[in-house]
Write a structure and sequence with these properties.
With about 425 residues, the protein is α+β, with helices and mostly antiparallel strands. It is built from 9 helices and 6 strands. About 70% of the residues lie in helices and about 15% in strands.
């Protein structure tokens, strides 16, 4: 008897496990522990996992359902009803009651509504197209956020490496200063100065390591995986000259931007909505048929009806007038928004384009500064090792070299982010 009771319980538990396992497996497949990620993989994960994309895809499904709702008038409407009533009859001599049973089936079919239904379908179809454009726009925003976070993490990682290298350099300098002091060739000041420089370098390393941890959290969130396992990213900044004119960039933005396409499609839907609102002035022609059974007792009497109905709106409290006014007002709002949006597109493209060119110029200059700072550091270390230099020269040259490398990393990061910004502004990937 107990085994019979346990069977459905175990069956339910196994069914629940089967529902959970595919999701867990999917989460593991998206990102494995200690996996090395490149930018394309991060984007792929975000497109699968980010909740904003799931929400936008849901909006597309909502608008798809509304198309089906608008098409409902093309199909016949069938209703079946059943009821029972009891009537009480009273007189001066006696009291009595009557029972009434009634069952009916009704069929109605819209024959012609002067284009109201097809116009409604057209409006909802345009709304779905706008939702598709909104979905693509959300995807582009998520992709840009991932790129920005990826480059931010890569920049933080390389800055951390520079900070570690600086600590090692100052550790070597401290050992060198101690050796000179113990040999009596350098004063105690050199040792103290080297210790202060090393402490400052270690402080900067702590800040760099925290910035790296924050950058990873930002990338996790951008991918839609705040609880992502440990992973590493490819340690390389790509630099490839982006050849495009400002005019071509603006033209491509007008052609490809999904958010601009969305508002243009919504404007078309608003134009059709004016026509849909005006359909309220016109009559509707429909056919109907019915069959019913009724009576006080079984067997019930039956009968049928067939007819055509034309419904002509005479006065609806100015409802149609106000609906037309609302549709026209919405159209005017969308026209103004489209113009404002086009101006915003130009601004966004111009800013991204100018930032790209500025970062491109900084890269070559930063590379030169790194080489110069490295030579200066080598000279300062050589002079100090020969007993000719002083610790201030070593400190200044080491800081200048670290700053030069950081500036070069910043320029490469800015260039890649500016490239991603320009691509987003143009609506291309």
């Amino acid at each position: 008897m107990r085994s019979v009771v346990l069977v459905p319980i175990l069956s339910g538990i196994l069914s629940g496990l089967l529902l959970v396992l595919p999701y867990s497996a999917g989460a593991e497949e998206a990102l494995k522990t200690r996996e090395v990620l490149n930018l394309n993989k991060c984007v792929e994960i975000a497109l699968q996992k980010h909740p904003d994309i799931a929400a936008a895809a849901g909006e597309v499904e909502v608008n798809q359902s509304r198309i089906g709702q608008a098409k409902a008038n093309y199909y016949p409407q069938v209703d079946v009803s059943a009821g029972y009533k009891k009537y009480s009859l009273s007189s001066t001599t006696s009291n009595s009651s009557l029972d009434e049973y009634k069952t009916s089936a009704a069929l109605s079919q819209m024959i012609y509504d002067f284009g109201k239904t097809p116009t409604g379908v057209e409006v909802q179809t345009l709304n779905r197209e706008a939702a598709n454009s909104d979905l693509r726009n959300i995807k582009e925003r998520v992709v840009f956020s991932v790129k920005q976070a990826y480059y931010g993490l890569l920049q933080s990682k390389q800055n951390r490496d520079v900070a570690e290298e600086t600590v090692k350099q100052f550790e070597q300098h401290l050992q060198q200063a101690k050796g000179f002091y113990e040999a009596g060739t350098k004063p105690k000041f050199d040792v103290t100065k080297a210790e202060v420089d090393l402490s400052n370098a270690r402080l900067n390393l702590i800040k760099a390591e925290n910035a790296l941890r924050i950058a990873k959290v930002v990338l996790d969130n951008a991918m839609g995986m705040p609880d992502a396992p440990e992973y590493t990213i490819e340690d390389a900044f790509l630099y490839q000259k982006y050849n495009i004119t400002l005019k071509d960039a603006v033209d491509r933005a007008y052609e490809n931007r999904p958010d601009l396409k969305s508002i243009i499609t919504k404007k078309k839907a608003a134009e059709s909505s004016i026509g849909l609102a005006k359909k309220g002035y016109y009559p509707t022609l429909s056919g109907n048929a019915g069959y019913d059974w009724s009576g006080e007792k079984l067997p019930l009497q039956d009968g049928w009806t067939v007819g055509v109905t034309i419904t002509l709106p005479i006065f609806s409290g100015y409802l149609t007038d106000y609906q037309v006014q609302e549709a026209r007002a919405k159209l005017n709002v969308l026209k103004a928004q489209e113009e404002s949006f086009r101006q915003g597109v130009i601004l966004e493209v111009q800013q991204a384009y100018l930032n790209l060119r500025e970062a491109e110029e900084r890269i070559s200059t930063a590379q030169l500064i790194v080489r110069q700072a490295q030579e200066n550091l080598e000279l300062a270390n050589g002079r100090y090792a020969a007993g000719l230099g002083n610790p201030v020269e070593v400190t200044d040259s080491q800081i200048a070299y670290s700053n030069a490398k950081t500036s070069h990393i910043q320029a490469l990061s800015d260039y890649n982010v500016a490239t991603a910004s320009l691509e987003k502004a143009m609506g291309v990937r």
